[in-house]
Specification:
The structure is a single chain. By secondary structure, the chain is α+β, with helices and mostly antiparallel strands. It has a nine-stranded antiparallel β-sheet with strand order 16-17-12-9-8-7-6-5-24, with no helix packed on it. A six-stranded antiparallel β-sheet has the order 10-11-18-15-14-13, with helices on one face. The protein is globular.
Length: 610
């Protein structure tokens, strides 16, 4: 049996320059009374963008307008008097939400363009003097905060500190905000994002850069933001399966971790590339992205996002969230591997607590025609809960640690949870093979592992050999728990594998149905593979995969492929057939066929070959 050939990746030379061209035009939508100007070029993109904005401009029911409704109406130049009254009512009740108030208020200020009444405009200006928003404690918080502060200081220049909640002048606010934004771009393009590849929070990064690309007056800031849109979109494009964001995630919520369609990424996949199904209604993040630049990605990003004609492995280097205690380095490296093919994707990081609370370290995702209501994923985890983890990543005092987190993240301290990282979980992936090892110290809270077996898996069978076989869409999945287990029911369907052993592990091999005559042929092929393991004194596995490669992995040691250690010290910032970047380069190369697009953030240049 010979498996399909995987796409390889090689660095290429720089491409000759080609200036990016923008054009304004009016999209005449029959369902809208006024034209919606967009910065795009294709009617398909404009129709998708218009439909998302219209949902917020024309909300169902007769309730009061929110900030998003006001912004969408202003974008379409509709109901200016109603927008003015509604804005004054919202501001009179008092702004709330900190940076999550700042970004919609900023959009309203820039979309006004003379439509709001003088009293509404004055109320908006006054709120930036009297309301003091919290800057937050995550990467997306700070980016939202400084993007909004930068643009509002730009809108109201030359004002003294007594006109701002910060007590600083417009010029001082703008310098502080620009400095943080520029340092974030530099760090991200050198060492990767800290709040990386979140299928929910990605929207806040996209909309922040959309704001700056559209409304920043400084040419360098505008260009930098436009390039970062390509950068962020490329990060998602290479790791999506028909619009669904695959891959290890820094942050994901409980329900969307299982029903992967139920994420903001579905809106972006649909609007940007026409992939999958959007949320109903679309999330506000995609709408605020569109209310600003409404940027449509270039052709090369569309090809990267949609071409799954050949299997490929994609590599990324990210960084941990800021570690305030117990580590000498503020950030640690995150090594990501994602194997993608038309039928499924297998994705992982190296394991450990790389992000607090909402980390998702590995999974198998299979493609389905309509993902709505479908739990098309499989994974395992150690349900770790620890004050030590929280004290690493947060600065709050220990006596309110776990209780404070659980007040908003209900599942954090649950033994049944399916979201979270663990310092006692180590992961090694090679193409569509995964080895996960656990070495949990005695006395650890929740000393067991959970495995998520979806209600949408078909042909689930426990083989006498110890292997478990299942089918997800057109993907055959084989997994071998290394310790005994039992099954627990899951609310809503499916099963939770429960294995209460401190030294534990699982071996996973995935394949396409097209590679085998039927599932029994796949089963025989799996049973013929060499698998050796031991659990004491340290979990260790030696496994020969369907690709013919021998994987060796011992907990706490560098894994090996055909006796060659994995080269973590040479891990690229991006590596694969479509996206390429070296660590510390501040440069990104997009590749598809002979097309190339090179983003150079040191020189703020974009070069293209068609």
């Amino acid at each position: 049996m010979r498996r399909n050939k995987e796409i390889g990746w090689q660095a290429k030379g720089p491409a000759p320059p080609l200036t990016r061209r923008w054009r304004w035009w009016l999209w005449l939508g029959v369902s809208l009374p006024l034209a919606l100007p967009l910065h795009a070029g294709t009617p398909e993109f404009d129709r998708r963008a218009q439909s998302a904005i219209e949902v917020y401009a024309h909300p169902k029911g007769s309730g009061p307008l929110g900030y998003a409704n006001i912004a969408a109406k202003l974008r379409l130049h509709e109901d200016a008097a109603l927008c003015s009254r509604s804005l004054e009512e919202l501001l009179a009740a008092g702004p709330t939400g900190d940076m999550f108030w700042m970004y919609p208020a900023t959009a309203i200020a820039y979309l006004d363009q003379g439509q709001l009444s003088d009293s509404a405009r004055q109320a908006l200006r006054r709120s930036w003097r009297t309301y003091m928003p919290y800057r937050g404690d995550t990467e997306n918080h700070w980016l939202l905060y400084y993007t909004s502060l930068y643009l509002m200081a730009q809108m109201w220049p030359g004002q003294d500190g007594d006109q701002w909640y910060t007590g600083k002048s417009s010029a001082e606010n703008m310098r502080e905000a620009a400095g943080w934004i520029e340092s974030w771009v530099k760090l991200t393009t050198r060492r990767g994002q800290g709040e990386y590849d979140s299928p929910h929070y990605m929207g806040l990064y996209f909309l922040s850069m959309s704001y700056l690309a559209e409304w920043a007056k400084d040419p360098a800031m505008k260009k930098r933001a436009g390039m970062m849109l390509d950068y962020l979109i490329a990060d998602y494009a290479a790791e999506n399966l028909d619009g669904i964001y695959v891959g290890a995630h820094s942050r994901v919520y409980d329900r969307p971790a299982l029903e992967k369609w139920l994420n903001v990424s579905s809106d972006f996949g649909w609007v940007l590339f026409g992939l999958g199904r959007p949320l109903d209604p679309p999330d506000g993040y995609i709408v605020f992205y569109l209310l600003a630049s409404a940027y449509e990605p270039p052709e090369i990003l569309k090809r990267i996002a949609t071409d799954r004609s050949q299997p490929y492995t994609h590599y990324e280097l990210k960084r941990t969230r800021n570690r305030w205690r117990f580590f000498d380095d503020l950030h640690g490296p995150v090594y990501k591997t994602t194997y993608v093919r038309r039928e499924y994707a297998v994705s992982s990081d190296q394991g450990g607590t790389l992000q607090p609370i909402q980390e998702h370290s590995w999974d198998v995702t299979w493609n389905v025609p309509d993902p709505r209501g479908i739990e098309n994923t499989f994974f395992t985890l150690h349900p770790y809960s620890s004050l030590g983890e929280l004290e690493t990543y947060f600065t709050f005092p220990p006596d309110i640690g776990i209780s404070g987190v659980v007040s908003s993240k209900k599942s954090y301290d649950s033994p049944d949870k399916f979201v979270g990282g663990s310092p006692y979980e180590k992961i090694f992936q090679d193409r569509d093979s995964v080895i996960v090892l656990y070495d949990i110290p005695p006395g650890t809270r929740f000393p067991h592992i959970n495995g998520f077996f979806s209600k949408d898996l078909a042909d689930l069978r426990e083989d006498p050999s110890g292997w478990i076989f299942a089918t997800g869409g057109d993907a055959y999945i084989a997994c071998r728990p290394l310790q005994p287990y039992s099954w627990m029911p899951i609310d809503g369907g499916g099963k939770r594998l429960f294995s209460p052993y401190l030294k534990n592990g699982i071996v996973v091999q995935v394949a396409s149905r097209s590679e085998f005559a039927d599932r029994d042929v796949f089963r025989r092929a799996i049973l013929a593979l060499e698998l050796e393991f031991q659990l004491a004194p340290t979990p260790s596995v030696r496994f020969r995969t369907l690709n013919g490669r021998t994987l060796g992995f011992t907990y706490g040691e560098i894994p090996q492929v055909d006796a060659t250690p994995l080269a973590y010290d040479r891990w690229p910032l991006f590596g694969g057939p479509f996206v390429e970047a070296a660590v510390d380069s501040e440069q990104l190369i997009l590749k598809w066929g002979k097309m190339r697009r090179t983003l150079d953030f040191r020189r703020l240049t974009v070069t293209d070959t068609p």
